[in-house]
């Protein structure tokens, strides 16, 4: 007969609170459950832990991209531009996030790991066909302290999900189309290019539908690991953003 430990009970309570409040980590009930679980963190020096290696994490709290819209069904909608530095067209395309994953793979260099953020989305814009795609924000991370990771983003790519009509995909995401960006978006794109050395996407790969961009001067940030075990990872970003992820593989 299995015995439920205080940590197991705290994890169950957090999952239930996230489900009840649509992943909102700012809700007082969710905040309380996060604090309770973090007090039971079993991992010493989590940024060096093997528990981070060769795993795929799935976000179970709400997405944290800027200017999202919560829909009546609890999902979150964004423009495509908000998911990846306004690098992919049409930037004002409305999409809903189906899932956010973060595969962590140990790289060749000591303690460096991948820090890719993969967003599965569905187009819900009435002016476009319903397509499913992936936005990959590509990055790496490595320990800065025992509890903190240094994170660097290196670029991104946009790809169709499996079984999508490639001819329709090309019509919607052709980078040669005019995007009719407003002055604010143009200014933002210009600043990002100056700050991070963003290299705009080249022509779409005709065989795969993939579009790719690079960052020559990688934006950097710190990520504090508040909790880590075989099932759950909770992190705190520099701007106070808390993300709760669950291991899926």
Estimate the mean pLDDT confidence: 88
Helix proportion: 10-25%
Placed side by side, the strands forming the largest sheet appear as 1-4-6-7-8-11-12-13
3D shape: globular
Please tell me how large the radius of gyration is.
19 Å
% residues in beta strands: 25-35%
Low-confidence stretches: none
Number of helices: 5
What class do helices, strands and sheet pairing give? alpha+beta
Q: How many structural domains can be distinguished in the coordinates? A: 2
**How many beta-strand elements?**
13
Give the biggest beta sheet. 8 strands, antiparallel, barrel
Give the distance, in angstroms, between the N- and C-terminal Cα atoms: 26 Å
> In sequence order, what are the helices and strands, one letter per element?
HHEEEHEEEEEHHEEEEE
Secondary-structure topology with pairs:
Layout: H1 6-20, H2 28-38, E1 55-59, E2 69-70, E3 76-79, H3 80-83, E4 94-104, E5 113-114, E6 117-123, E7 132-143, E8 148-160, H4 166-173, H5 183-196, E9 198-199, E10 211-215, E11 220-228, E12 232-237, E13 242-247
Antiparallel strand pairs: 1-4, 1-13, 2-3, 3-4, 4-6, 5-7, 6-7, 7-8, 8-10, 8-11, 9-10, 11-12, 12-13
Helix pairs in contact: 1-2
């Amino acid at each position: 007969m299995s015995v439920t430990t205080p940590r197991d009970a705290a994890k169950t309570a957090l999952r239930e609170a996230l489900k009840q409040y649509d992943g909102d980590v700012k809700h007082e009930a969710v905040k309380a459950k996060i604090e309770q679980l973090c007090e039971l963190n079993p991992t010493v020096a989590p940024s060096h832990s093997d528990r981070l290696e060769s795993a795929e994490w799935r976000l179970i709290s709400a997405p944290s991209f800027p200017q999202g819209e919560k829909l009546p069904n609890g999902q979150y909608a964004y423009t495509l531009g908000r998911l990846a530095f306004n690098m992919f067209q049409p930037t004002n395309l409305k999409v809903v996030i189906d899932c956010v994953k973060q595969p962590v793979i140990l790289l060749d260099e000591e303690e460096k790991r991948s820090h890719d953020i993969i967003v599965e989305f569905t187009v819900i814009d009435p002016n476009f066909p319903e397509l499913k795609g992936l936005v990959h924000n590509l990055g790496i991370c490595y320990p800065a302290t025992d509890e903190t990771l240094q994170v660097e983003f290196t670029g991104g790519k946009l790809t169709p999900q499996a079984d999508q009509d490639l001819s329709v995909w090309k019509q919607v995401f052709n980078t040669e189309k005019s995007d009719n960006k407003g002055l604010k978006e143009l200014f933002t794109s210009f600043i990002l290019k100056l700050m991070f050395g963003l290299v705009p996407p080249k022509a779409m790969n005709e065989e795969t539908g993939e579009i790719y961009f690079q960052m020559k001067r990688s934006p950097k940030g710190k990520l504090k690991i508040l909790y880590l075990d075989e099932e759950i990872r909770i992190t705190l970003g520099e701007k106070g953003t808390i993300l709760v992820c669950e291991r899926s593989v």
